[in-house]
Amino acid sequence: MNLDEKDRLILRLLSGNARMPVTELAGQVGLSGPSTSERIRRLETNGIIARFTVELDLASLGYPLQAIVRIKPRPGNMHIVEEMILSEPRFLDCDKVTGDDCFVARLALGSIADLDPVLLPFHDRAETNTAIIKSSPVRGRVPV
Question: Among 6, 137, 114, which Cα is nearest to 63's?
Fold first, then answer.
């Protein structure tokens, strides 16, 4: 699907606020409400918009800290480590990557003291390297 500037603007605006009323969105894009709605439907039908979601304030939920954890499973432990990551709900995101590490994950923490209890079960099956996130200057940017 070829995207024009109106489509790209719709995507940028919805990525900032997926609950923006169509009338407000249409006004910012410079189209009518029905035309804007039709473009959104077309973007959904073509799989460009996969879903509308909510962004949670993790600090308000008791997780003021986040960490990036690089995980390198020991030989023969790849699937076990992946299951361990999947079973720990405080892992917010996880990517399988190339290079020395096999997984790069984002972990939500209530405090620094929570880090060792979460990672300790991994130590028999993997090497971990952790960095506490100080800030996130770019999050959820839309590349359009």
Answer: 114
Instruction: Write down the pLDDT at residue 9.
Output: 95
Same domain flag for 12 and 70 = no
Q: What is the pLDDT of residue 139?
A: 86
Residue ranges making up the domain that contains 31: 5-45
* Amino acid letter, residue 98: T
The reply to whether 73 falls in a domain is: yes
* Position 1 confidence tier, pLDDT thresholds 50, 70, 90: confident
Question: Considering the entire predicted model, what is its pTM?
Answer: 0.82
CATH number for the domain including 120? Answer: 3.30.70.920
